[in-house]
Fold:
Amino acid sequence: MKALVTGAAGFIGSHLAEMLLDAGNEVVLVDDLSSGKRANIDALLARGKASFHQVDIRDRDALMPCFAGVDRVFHLAGRADIVPSIEDPDTYFSVNVTGTLNVLQAARAHHVERLVYAASSSCYGIPDVFPTPENTPVQPEYPYALTKAMGEELVLHWGKVYRLPVVSLRLFNVYGPRSRTAGTYGAVFGVFLAQKLKGQPFTVVGDGTQSRDFTYVTDVARAFAMAADSNLCGEVMNVGSGGHYPVNRLVELLGGDVVYIPKRPGEPDCTFADTTKIREKLGWQPRVSLEAGVAAMLERLGDWQDAPLWTPSSIETATRSWFANLGEQA
Structure:
């Protein structure tokens, strides 16, 4: 199989590309390197049977030739994080929506066998049902969530109208080695690991009882591979750990002091995926427990040496626009 992975330098994309290469596939790596993860690309190229194209998915003319001879496409490229999406919605729309349109058109032009899209569980907003099934209303709270949901709508529409075989996977709170360590204040694991490495207290939002469906990255990569190997078309499936864990439990596993900061608007008290559909249709199930996953990350704590150290005051500054724009909805 010849596979193409957009966002191949990124966190999930690099793990997926690694898994595909280890299975003997030829892999086309596509990334604009805006995340600065050139080392991930070099490590993948060193495995052999991989080629790299430094391309921005917003540039359709540059993107189109990358798809020549490709059988399967895994579309993971996109912009993440809440705060920058509030401050710069134009960029989020151009990358997550227009960029996805370009990927779909390239896949269609080259008659790929299957396309698997990385959607986000943030599309559910603040759901009322737990565990949350795929038929829960889509009600995004901020531009990142909205543009990822719009990308998913494009993917499903291209499957319906143009008969492009597509599957969309809604990912819940993915963590693991090689997760992003730089940039805007965001994912709790990156924040906490940098704080632990530098002997600073963990900045816990609210009272820490809010829970998250922390899902290990290799489990997620396996879900993508299994979806591509299936005969499913036009399906949307959650990818989660099968449980949900209070942030206080994560702090307990990491070990360290805590300082509490204000609860943020637009965030659910719980994320918890109903994974019945993916278990039944693909036979997929998670393998890595939270305890094992956290232990694996602590073994590589040095990876967060250059990550930004967030403090209550710097978080307050970084999230000011978050509170200003979403606060009245809380």
Remarks:
- The first strand starts at residue 2 and ends at 6.
- The chain has two domains: 2-174+215-239, 182-213+242-271+288-329.
- The longest helix spans residues 89-109.
